[in-house]
Design brief:
Bound molecules: pyridoxal-5'-phosphate
Radius of gyration: 28 Å
Structural class: alpha/beta
CATH class of the largest domain: Alpha Beta
Distance between the termini: 40 Å
CATH topology of the largest domain: Aspartate Aminotransferase, domain 2
CATH architecture of the largest domain: 3-Layer(aba) Sandwich
Largest sheet: 7 strands, mixed
Number of domains: 3
């Protein structure tokens, strides 16, 4: 058939729009999007004719193709996935999943006006961090608290409000890069303060800080080296010692804790992580940490510490720019409340629940899945293997959690079979994200709670 004859077989958009199937699509997706989709299909159809002298695949059913395209376009950019990567707090997958109480609190705050900056007792304007500050003081023993969008913002605000134009003394071993362009020296510059490095990469002594103190010194700062560890011939100054020096010299001491944990993780057999309340008790002036790392709440930056300094943060113009919204505050409040009942914390806080799962339980889960899945994947050899998961988000970088993974080894040993498997799972209604290592696909089961949901994805 000639190109001309093929072109003449393409239906006119106007005619299509009058068909009942398109009237229904128009009602569902709106006129503009439907017409845009049809235009794209017409262009693609003409390209197909010009390039291959044939009509497009959807020649007999333009409505079905339009529906498929419109539905595909509906998919959220934030699609729920199965995180079987073995990293519990995976930054690229949104870090902590929220507790049910936090999810409910956020929906309530979204549906109705709330007392965000409104004090019901004296019917005046309250301050938006007030309710959370009370909770945070109860949990950490601090005098006051301030909440911003994330911990990077918290560090910027602490430096800008407490040290602008002055010097901040930091150990050379703690000039960290967190990733995503967050480097302590750069943040100092942005906050308008001068970095005064002391000590060496591996060893910093109290006398190094003491000798650095002068009329320009505004702050003594410690940064938790969350994402790396220096071992061997090392020395660093404890927060207690630095707080002591700060008190003697009348200079505030601030600590960027990164993750931090409000509960002692060693009671669950997990590696120790510094606790904000211990630093407050040691006399540190301000401590900042993330809401969505080990705390298990929403993305937020939490600063706790001395009343006078928190008041400076609250009244700084940057606080207005960095303040958290009502949904974050609602989720954070609900999450913090869970810490008031530590006995139920493991059950209620997903992050802690996943981190404390027992290897034997994960192994048993792997074996259940193995027996159901092996017949469905004849081209692969399935096995349950011990593996080591990680906490993620720079928390406890060298510590690994023993668990179990379901592995898929292609029987023909080909990398292309693995790549196809990964692609097929990425294309599932709820994508399944594992990792390829050692010629096999690894599904680390530590974060798998919805077993039936996963089975559904892997069966299709
Ligand atoms: C993670 C981290 C930050 C940044 O926290 P966000 O909440 O991701 O902004 C800053 N400092 C340290 C030490 C960290 O570990």
């Amino acid at each position: 058939m000639s190109q001309h004859a093929l072109f003449s077989q393409l239906p006119a958009t106007d005619r299509l729009l009058r068909e009942p199937a398109f009237t229904a699509l128009c009602a569902e997706f709106g006129h503009t999007r439907l017409v845009d989709t049809l235009r794209q299909m017409q262009t693609a159809a003409r390209d197909e004719i010009r390039a291959h002298q044939r009509l497009p695949e959807w020649r007999d059913d333009w409505a079905a193709e339009a529906r498929r395209r419109l539905h595909k376009d509906e998919e959220s950019a934030l699609r729920p996935v199965f995180n079987l990567t073995g990293t519990v707090l995976h930054t690229n997958l949104g870090r902590a999943i929220q507790a049910e109480a936090a999810v409910e609190a956020v929906s309530r705050a979204m549906r109705s006006p709330v007392t965000l900056e409104y004090d019901l007792d004296d019917a005046g304007r309250g301050h938006r961090d007030r309710a959370l500050a009370a909770l945070l003081c109860e949990l950490t023993g601090a005098e006051d608290a301030c909440i911003v969008n994330n911990n990077a913002a918290a560090v910027l605000l602490m430096l800008a409000a407490c040290a602008q134009g002055g010097e901040v003394v930091v150990s050379r071993g703690e000039l960290v890069e967190i990733g995503g362009a967050f480097r302590i020296p750069d943040v100092m510059r942005q906050a308008g303060c001068q970095l005064h490095e002391v000590g060496t990469t591996n060893r910093t002594h109290l006398k190094d800080y003491r000798q650095a103190i002068g009329p320009e010194t505004a702050l003594l700062m410690k940064v938790h080296t969350s994402n790396y560890q220096i071992s061997g011939f090392t020395k660093s100054v404890s927060e207690e010692e630095l707080a002591q020096l700060g008190a003697e010299s009348d200079i505030p001491v601030v600590v960027d804790l990164g993750s931090g944990s409000l509960v002692d993780l060693t009671q669950y057999g997990l590696p120790a992580e510094p606790m904000p309340q211990r630093l407050i008790a040691a006399g540190v002036s301000l401590v900042s940490f993330s809401g969505d790392k080990l705390l298990g709440g929403p993305q937020a930056g939490i600063i706790v510490g001395k009343k006078g300094l928190i008041a400076r943060l609250q009244s700084h113009p940057l606080k207005r720019a960095l303040r958290a919204d009502k949904m974050t505050l609602a989720a954070l409040e609900a999450t913090l409340r869970l810490y008031r009942h530590p006995e139920k914390l493991v059950e209620r806080l997903p992050t802690l629940r996943l981190l404390t799962r027992k290897p034997a339980e994960i192994q048993a889960q792997g074996e259940r899945l193995l027996s159901l899945l092996a017949p469905l994947y004849p081209d692969f050899e399935l096995r349950v293997e011990p593996c080591l998961s990680q906490i993620g988000s720079g928390s406890l970088p060298v510590d690994r959690l023993p668990g179990a993974a379901l592995t898929f080894a292609p029987r023909d040993g080909s990398g292309s079979a693995l790549a196809r498997l990964a692609e097929r799972w990425r294309g599932a209604a709820r994508p399944v994200i594992g990792r390829i290592n050692d010629g096999r696909m690894w599904l680390d089961l530590r974060c798998l709670e919805d077993e039936a949901g996963l089975m559904e994805m892997l069966q299709s």
